[in-house]
Design brief:
The chain contains 16 helices and 17 strands. The chain has helices spanning 5-9, 25-33, 47-56, 104-115, 140-153, 165-174, 190-200, 211-223, 238-254, 275-287, 300-313, 346-359, 375-380, 386-396, 417-423, 439-445; strands spanning 64-66, 73-75, 93-99, 119-121, 124-126, 130-134, 157-161, 181-185, 204-207, 229-232, 265-266, 292-294, 326-330, 339-343, 363-368, 406-409, 428-431. The strands form five sheets. The protein has an eight-stranded parallel β-sheet, covered by helices on one side. Strands 13-15-14 form a three-stranded mixed β-sheet, sandwiched between helices. Helix 5 runs parallel beside helix 6 and helix 14 (386-396) crosses helix 15 (417-423). 40% of the residues are buried.
């Protein structure tokens, strides 16, 4: 049960030192209770209080770290059923599958192809994180070799899939440095798999025939000292699998069932006969509520829309997507190229920059911080006022990059032209099109 602000306040040092960034310990406690602050920002909280607060504030679904390196990620850590209630925190991890009998040439080709699937979007690098190595013949040496190759020769992290403890142990030892996820302990293999996970400090997936059966298995493994678990209800029929995802999430959040308070792993790869249907099922699990989604393969036509869906689902709905304030070069502009300005709402940036690119006119695009608001909304809210825009043009450094003194502003912000001229004496303020689609023709005429 989460603590109230007053309950948290009683555990704080009550020094009102302001070092946490707020004026009083009570204000800090209220921020902690609402999730707007981190306990580590208080330098004087006691170890005893820290332990109590950490336990009380632990999310109902435990966050589990999977992998190491540039594609290390967490799954779980969620606190709400619906993202509009607050937000979803740790995006669904995406995996493709290789079999343990794959040839070196085919494995190298697959890793090269999959590594290309990286997309820049709103300043973020969107990419899948995992490769699932599946044991197909019980050959522990072949399994360990493939797992090690994936771990050492690529940025991808690893899911180890085997039903045999000796095979799993070999794979775990081969790539333990990448902190792979072991999949999956069952009632029959819980003791052996649990020991391997404990000895190597690895996260462990558990699989049962139903949600109810997961509880006993989860309790047994947590009793052994394992904390990082991932759940698989065993369902491979789409309707039942979805119902299980909802049931696990609801039990953890609404009923406080700690036995089910872990992220889940799902297998569209075992629910469809082609990548198109797999992708459709994967999209469902990204929305509800798969922590990890395992596909048979990565294909550009499916992974890109899945990554975009994931980005949208796991973006905080209370915070607009933004790009960084500054100067953006489009098409190698020079000192005579036009200068345009707009807000830092991500959608505005991508639409405007895309239209400038399509015009084939090299340009400078100035992005002013408007707290993520679009042009018209930012102007109405006073976040894109003429004097502020003028001051931004002065300080951003564009004056050192161009010889001319002409600034093109959005058509919907025409009202601020006069204020900008006052702030930028000698500059010509040109009102551009209202609609971004008209930018190419506008730039070509200039």
């Amino acid at each position: 049960m989460a603590l109230t602000g007053i309950q948290i306040f009683k555990l704080l040092p009550k020094t009102n030192c302001k070092e946490c960034g707020v004026p009083t310990c009570l204000a800090f406690a209220m921020n902690l209770a609402s999730g707007k602050a981190e306990l580590d920002t208080c330098p004087y909280v006691s170890d005893e209080a820290r332990e109590q607060l950490a336990e009380a504030s632990a999310p109902p679904i435990r966050p589990v770290a999977v992998g190491k390196g540039v594609r290390a990620a967490k799954t779980g850590g969620e606190t709400v059923m619906y993202r509009h209630e607050k937000t979803f925190f740790n995006p669904t991890l995406l995996a493709a599958t290789v079999k343990s009998d794959i040839s070196d040439a085919d494995l190298n080709a697959a890793l090269v192809k999959w590594n290309v699937f990286q997309y820049e979007r709103v300043g973020l690098n969107l990419r899948p994180e995992l490769v699932a190595v599946k044991d197909v013949n019980g050959n522990k040496d072949a399994f360990a070799k493939v797992a090690k190759k994936v771990a050492e020769a690529s940025e991808f992290n690893v899911i180890l899939m085997s039903e045999k403890a000796e095979v799993m142990k070999a794979g775990a030892e081969a790539c333990a440095f990448k902190r792979p996820l072991m999949y999956a302990a069952t009632a029959a293999t819980a003791d052996a798999f649990g020991k391997i996970a404990l000895d190597n400090d690895l996260p462990l997936a558990i699989k049962a025939d139903s949600v109810e059966a997961l509880i006993a298995l989860s309790d047994k493994l947590t009793g052994m000292g394992l904390k990082d678990l991932v759940l698989d209800s065993g369902a491979r029929e789409i309707k039942q699998a979805l119902e299980d995802q909802v049931a696990i999430r609801r039990a953890a959040l609404k009923k406080g069932n700690r036995s089910l308070g872990f992220p889940t792993i799902t297998f569209p790869s075992e629910m469809a006969s082609n990548i198109e249907m797999e992708s459709l099922i994967a999209a469902m699990f990204i929305a509800k509520y798969g922590g990890i989604v395992v596909l048979s393969d990565f294909a550009g036509e499916s992974i890109f829309p899945l990554l975009l869906e994931r980005l949208n689902i796991f973006t905080d709905p209370q915070r607009p997507m933004t790009v960084t304030e500054g100067i953006y070069e489009i098409g190698n502009p020079n000192e005579n190229s036009p200068v345009l300005v707009t807000t830092n709402f991500a959608l505005t940036y991508f639409i405007v920059s895309g239209e400038i690119e399509s015009s084939k006119v090299p340009s400078w695009l100035l992005i002013k911080n408007s707290e993520g608001l679009s042009v018209l909304t930012a102007w109405a809210a006073g976040k894109f006022a003429g004097d502020d825009v003028g001051a931004f043009v002065k300080k951003c450094g564009i004056m050192d990059k161009v010889k001319h003194k002409e600034l093109i502003i959005p058509g919907y912000a025409a009202a601020i032209a006069g204020d900008i001229e006052e702030e930028l004496p000698g500059w010509k303020i040109t009102v551009g099109p209202r609609e971004a689609a008209h930018i190419p023709a506008f730039l070509k005429t200039k």
